[in-house]
Amino acid sequence: MRTLRAIINEAIDKGYLHKDSYPFSTPQAKSGKYKLTRLKSSYKPRGLSIYDMDKIKNFDSDLYNHLRKAHFYFLFSYFCYGMNFTDMAFLEWKNIKDNRINYERRKTKKGFSILITEPIQILLDSFRSLQQIKTNYIFPILNDKVHKTPTSKNDRIKKSLKEFNLDLKQIQKLLNIEEKLTSYSARHTSCQALRDKNVPVEDISELA
Question: 113: part of which helix (H) or strand (E)?
């Protein structure tokens, strides 16, 4: 619905549609018929508790080889302040310089520079050792020799994200975690950990 609203706004701006046809400012809209908030899911994502996050940190994914990538993806996102999965997919080894990960958020085009702490370095070393096919990308999501067009990259990321979330469901069951575990859980948990350390909300929002 947000996409539809954006298209309608652009159509009005370009003169393809009269502003009187805008559905989000009609009497029906005021009654709630077109209110986007009514379409939101009742699920409210929350960060994991310290106890549950410790379970994930201590999870021995070597015993569940098929879940290792998902486990490492989740930890990497968490330690990198909730880095988005798509941004992770596009990370290349050249983004690492002077012990920092420098990248641009694809959604906002905002630049970030993350210090490589010991946990992050361990994860990077693991992915480097697991890399079977030589590629510029850090994670085995995209391959620069295979995924050359925006469409092929987008399709591959969507497929990988779906697999990631399915694997997280298995990890959730194995670790007996009640809170729903998704790729976004790492982001919410990381932000929550920063709040617990009294990091100002404005600084945390800059990471979004």
Answer: strand 111-115
Torsion of CA 44, 61, 55, 88, to 10 degrees: -40
Please provide the distance, in angstroms rounded to a whole number, between the alpha carbons at the two ends of the chain. Answer: 22
The pLDDT assigned to 10 comes to 85
C-alpha–C-alpha distance, residues 128 and 139, integer Å: 8
- How much is the CA Rg of the chain, to the nearest whole Å? 20
What six digits make up the tokens of 150?
A: 């925006």
User: What value does the mean pLDDT take over residues 150-176?
Assistant: 95
Show contacts of 67-74: CB within 8 Å, 24+ apart.
67/167, 67/170, 67/171, 67/174, 69/140, 69/164, 69/167, 70/163, 70/164, 70/167, 70/168, 70/171, 71/171, 72/123, 72/126, 72/127, 73/139, 73/164, 73/183, 74/168, 74/171, 74/183, 74/185, 74/186
In the chain, the largest separation of any two C-alpha atoms, in whole Å, equals 61
Q: Strands, DSSP E only, in 7-63?
A: none
Phi-psi region of 84 (alpha: psi -120 to 50; beta: other; left: phi over 0): beta
What pLDDT does residue 7 have? Answer: 87
pLDDT digits (tens, 9 = 90+) for 128-139: 987 767 788 999
Burial 119-134 (b: 16+ CB within 10 A, else e): ebeebbeebeeeeeee
Q: For residues 162 and 146, what is the distance between their CA atoms, to the nearest angstrom?
A: 20
